[in-house]
Amino acid sequence: MGAGFASLLPMTLLARLERRFGWLTIQGLPLYIVATQGLVYVWGLMNPEGLHFLTLNPAAIVEGREYWRLLTFLFIPPMQNPLFTFFFLYLLYVYGSALETEWGSFSFTLFYLCGAMGTVVAAFFFGGSAGAFYLNTSLFLAFAAVHPDFELLFFFVIPLKIKWLALATWVWFGYLFLGASIATKASLLVSFINYFLFFGPVHFASVRDMIVRTRHRRRFKDWSD
C-alpha cells in the first residue's frame, strides 16, 4: 500500500479493504492492460468487424447471453493509426505503472476495478455500447493529479506539464457534459466514479482551503485600508 495513495483515502479503510478483497489484486496490471489492448489492436486491423463483439453492449449481454462483453470491453484500444496507438499504449503503461508503484498493486487494482464497474453500471442504466475510453482517461487524470509537474514533449518538441493537459481534458469533458442529455451526463459521472471516490476529497479540501485563503486576504485588505 503506497504512501501516495494513503493521502487520498483513509489508511484504515484501505487496510480493511485489502484484508477482505486482497485476493482481487493483480500484480503488474498495467502491463496486462497494455499488452492485451495491443494484441486486440493488431487483431482489429485484420478483423475490423470483430471488434463489435467485444464492446460493452447491455442488450447483447442480457438478450444474447454474450457475457464475455463484461470483460472484453476493457481490451479495446483506440483504433487510430499505428503510431498514435503505440504512443497511447506506451503512455498508458507509463501512467499505470507509476501509479501502481506509488500506490501498491491492490490500490491500483481497486482504482481500475471501480472504474470498470462504473462503466458497466453506466452502460446498463443509461444505454449505449461502451469501451474503455473513460476508464483509460481516468488513469491519465489520476497520474496528473499525483504528478502534476510531469512533463511531456508536445509534438515531440514542446515541453508541457501534464497538469495543463489534464486541465484541458477536464474542460473538454465539462463542455461535453453541459451539452449532453441527462442520460449522457449521468453516464459521464458514473464512468468516473473511481476518480471521484479517490480524488474527490482531496480536490474538495483544496477548493475549501482556497476559499478560506481568499476570505482571509479580503479581510486583511479591508482591515489595512
Summarize the SSE layout with pairings.
Layout (H helix, E strand, L loop, with lengths): L2 H4 L4 H11 L7 H18 L11 H6 L5 H4 L9 H22 L1 H22 L6 H14 L4 E4 L3 E4 H18 L2 H10 L1 H32 L1
Antiparallel strand pairs: 1-2
Helix pairs in contact: 3-6, 6-7, 6-8, 7-8, 7-10, 7-11, 8-9
Summarize the structure.
With 225 residues, the protein is mainly alpha-helical.
Q: Name the helix and strand elements from N-terminus to C-terminus, one letter apiece.
A: HHHHHHHHEEHHH
CATH topology: Rhomboid-like fold
| Average of the residue pLDDT scores | 80
CATH secondary-structure class: Mainly Alpha
The Cα radius of gyration reads 20 Å
- Report helical residue fraction: over 70%
Largest sheet: 2 strands, antiparallel
Query: How many strands appear in the DSSP assignment?
Result: 2
Strands side by side in the biggest sheet: 1-2
Number of folding domains? 1
CATH architecture assignment: Up-down Bundle
Structural classification: mainly alpha
Taken as a percent bin, the fraction of beta residues is under 5%
What does this protein look like?
With 225 residues, the protein is mainly alpha-helical. The chain has one domain: Rhomboid-like fold, CATH 1.20.1540. Helices cover 72% and strands 4% of the residues. It contains eleven helices and two strands; from the N terminus they run ααααααααββααα. The chain has a two-stranded antiparallel ribbon with strand order 1-2. The chain is globular and about 65 Å long. The chain starts with a helix and ends with a helix.
List key phrases describing it:
2 strands, 225 residues, mainly alpha, single chain, 11 helices
